[in-house]
Design brief:
FAD/NAD(P)-binding domain; globular; seven-stranded mixed sheet; five-stranded parallel sheet; alpha/beta
Length: about 425
């Protein structure tokens, strides 16, 4: 049976127009891609940025502090300088290894797009109550923090009056401050870990500055209320995550926000059998953000959850630049790939693979690490078979803040090996 001909063709197709997708489009157009398509299921640029009305964006990429909408607007201005085909209100239904993308769109109906390279910039989604198995009823008043952020900041809706937040991720911390400013009674933030899971600056600016209690090493044991949340029971937990019964307490509230982690949106990548990293839950990528399938790239929070949007955009621009080069000339590896392995004290590493290409050299490559625990004055150690290749003293590391290392400073030292183990040693 003959395949239906694709109505649209392009050099680079980018799925998602958030901070990663916008930067990828810019990177592709500024580095030679002729026809660039952006596909997004929403009707606007910026993705999640538009509901993040707080400042703190752009300090590294634009060298000034911006709100989320301002950050998206700045990128939109940059994209307007280029001829880019934009498909809003467009859902990618399916794609295959031949780089044929099937879309359902209000603009073009159900159509097929043939791309020379594809960049996944689909971001991530929030974990819900279903991921947590919290006992109790199923009343109204339970939201993920991101959903509450959209309701309050974009739709102007009230979500309740008295709020408890489970999880101290950045969105939860920012919503604690936002709701306090809006006049809500923010009872507490409850965190199962012994340390906050959001950035230290957000703990200071959103909780401490506003006098909002933070219960570390605590978990919810029951949600009270049948029609509407009436309160929650929380309990302190020990080092093995077992509840200490005598510490149970009741917090009265009518709203519970969940800020308990993010999951990369990898469903489309799984369709084409892209390899997924168990630790990051995103695709395995090399130093040019290419997956194990040639011509399939990924960037931003679909690869891993970044702490700063600026890193997402830096990462996206690199993917766009590499995809443009792949579409015109291909990428030819110089030798066998070098694996970057997480060692002691390191939770995740991106990229997981380093490749040196015969026909492509980039000086804008970074390694992004997340520490497994708090460590004061650790040594960042690159080693091969227990032989130290490179060592650097750091002032401190915490799990919520990424460690960013520029590869160019020691590229030649590590490329002579088939793998390098990266550790954080106290």
């Amino acid at each position: 049976m003959m395949k239906k001909k694709c109505k649209f063709e392009c050099d680079v197709a980018i799925i998602g127009s958030g901070p990663a997708g916008m930067a990828a489009a810019l990177g592709a157009k500024e580095n030679g891609a002729d026809e660039v398509f952006i596909l997004d299921r929403h009707n606007w640029f910026g993705g999640i940025l538009n509901q993040c009305i707080h400042p703190g964006f752009g300090l590294k990429y634009f060298n000034k502090e911006l709100t989320g909408p301002e950050y998206a607007h700045n990128f939109n201005d940059l994209l307007k300088k280029h001829d880019i085909s934009i498909f809003f209100d467009t859902t990618v239904v399916k794609m295959d290894k031949e780089k044929i993308i099937e879309v359902s769109s209000s603009q073009v109906g159900y159509e097929r797009i043939k791309a020379k390279s594809i960049i996944m910039a689909t971001g991530c989604r929030e974990k819900t109550r279903g991921n947590l198995n919290i006992p109790g009823f199923r009343p109204a008043g339970i939201f993920t923090a991101g959903t509450a952020q959209r309701f309050v900041n974009i739709d102007g809706l009230a979500i309740g009056r008295k709020v408890v937040i489970l999880g101290s991720g950045d969105i939860g911390l920012i919503m604690a401050r936002r709701l306090k400013i809006e006049g809500y009674d923010v009872v507490a933030v409850v965190e199962i870990l012994p340390y906050p899971s959001g950035l230290h600056r957000n703990v200071q600016q959103c909780l401490i500055d506003f006098g909002i209690p933070l219960f570390l090493n605590h978990n919810i044991t029951f949600i009270e209320g049948e029609n509407r949340v009436k309160g929650i029971r929380i309990v302190e937990i020990d080092n093995d995550k077992n509840p200490i019964g005598s510490t149970e307490k009741f917090l009265e509230c009518d709203t519970l926000l969940l800020s308990v982690g993010l999951i990369p949106e990898t469903e489309l990548l799984k369709q084409v059998k892209v390899k997924i990293d168990d630790k990051t839950a995103g695709p395995v990528v090399d130093n040019l953000m290419q997956t194990n399938l040639e011509g399939f790239f990924a960037c931003g929070n679909v690869v891993q959850v970044y702490d700063l949007v600026d890193y997402v955009s830096i990462n996206g621009y690199l993917a766009g630049k590499a995809a443009a080069f792949y579409s015109s000339s291909g990428l030819i590896p110089e030798k066998n790939s070098l694996k970057l392995k997480p060692g002691k004290g390191v939770k995740t590493i991106v990229p997981q693979i380093y490749k040196f290409y015969k026909n492509y050299t980039s000086s804008e490559e970074y390694i992004y690490l997340r520490a497994a625990n708090y460590i004061n004055h650790p040594d960042l150690v690159f080693s091969y078979e227990k032989n130290v290749i490179f060592k650097k003293k750091l002032s401190y590391v915490i799990p919520s803040e990424m460690i960013v290392i520029e590869i160019s400073k020691f590229r030649e030292k590590i490329l002579s090996n088939d793998y390098v183990e990266i550790s954080l040693e106290s």
